[in-house]
Amino acid sequence: MPATIRAWPIMVGAALLLSLAMGIRQSLGLFMQPMTDSGITVADFTFSVAVQNVVWGLSQPFVGALSDRLGLRRVAMSGAVLYAAGILCAVLATGPLWLSLGTGPLLGIALSCTAASLNLSAAARAVPEAQRSRALGIVSAGGSLGTLIAAPLAQGLMASGWQVAMLAMFGLALLMIPAAFVMGRADLVPLPARRGEATSFREVLHAALHRRAFLVMAGAFMVCGLQLVFLTTHLPTYLSMCGMDPMLSAQSLAVIGGFNIAGAYTWGWLGGIYPKHVMLGLLYLLRSAAIAVFFLFPPSPVTTLAFAATMGLLWMGVSPLTAGLVAQMFGLRYMATVTSLAFLSHQVGSFLGAWGGGLILQTLGSYDRAWQVGVLIGLIAGTVQIVFGADGRPRPRLRPAMV
After folding, report:
1. CATH topology for 3-186+199-392?
2. Per-chain mean pLDDT for the chain
3. What pTM was computed for the model?
């Protein structure tokens, strides 16, 4: 079957799976205030989200290695089932135990199987190298559509009870199963082999940990996780504390998702023209500047939606750039594994963004120190990525794959 025909079903499945996984996950912050009104504390909620991010990060390298061995389809479909089970546990939550189980470890493992790493690996396999960066941007852009649906749907149903809204998220999670099945067609695509390419998980790990460009990218990726999860978890509460309409939070998340479609595609396109490590560092600098400007002044509906639009343009543009750098440095055979190693660093930052933001709010009564720290380290990460993120090693020559 010609590659141009085979690629589109894989890319559509990958984008849909990513869209649903990220859309539901990024809407969880809308549930914090309603759930805290029913006996669950802010610390309980933010801790469960923090656990989710840690489990996501810790399990991601093993899930990536498993998918490289067993195939993307089996792992992604299993993750979709776990995702639905995690949401169902949250529906049944009457205290911190069930909430922590559902939105914590179950959703964490499920996200390893359904969000970002495996999806982008499937997209990278589906197209020739010359089209890879743009294809990664397209899948990342398509992954934004879920927020446009999930956030307004959850907020609109919240008047009937947060359990009803969470049941709607469960229904969306079930749609992930057929999407994972279609994406799994990438397992049928022959992989080009490269001279000097690692042939085992141990060799991949050794190569990644001894490559400066990869380590710089992974370190900056940690700051990315901190900033994004801080916003998705705490922005609704921050706006509520400032007297904003609760629907503004859902509208902001939807605007982020909408503008992310253009942003992710644009950054993927730029990564095919300019050095990816420079584009990645620039993205971190622009994002940190946007956060600083927003939090310096009291929010209003206009400034909040403008901020959401700006962040949308800078949100998942990281994904095609980091995945493209991994493919450029290490090839496709163990792309899911290596991308997952970088993502572990991202999730350490996510843990700090979710839990640390909650601790700062609970201790100091405001988010001032949280966003100030996020901006400072974001500026540092962007600068380091630009200055030290270039990969000076020659790219290995391709040789025919053994089929």
Report:
1. Growth Hormone; Chain: A; (1.20.1250)
2. 85
3. 0.76
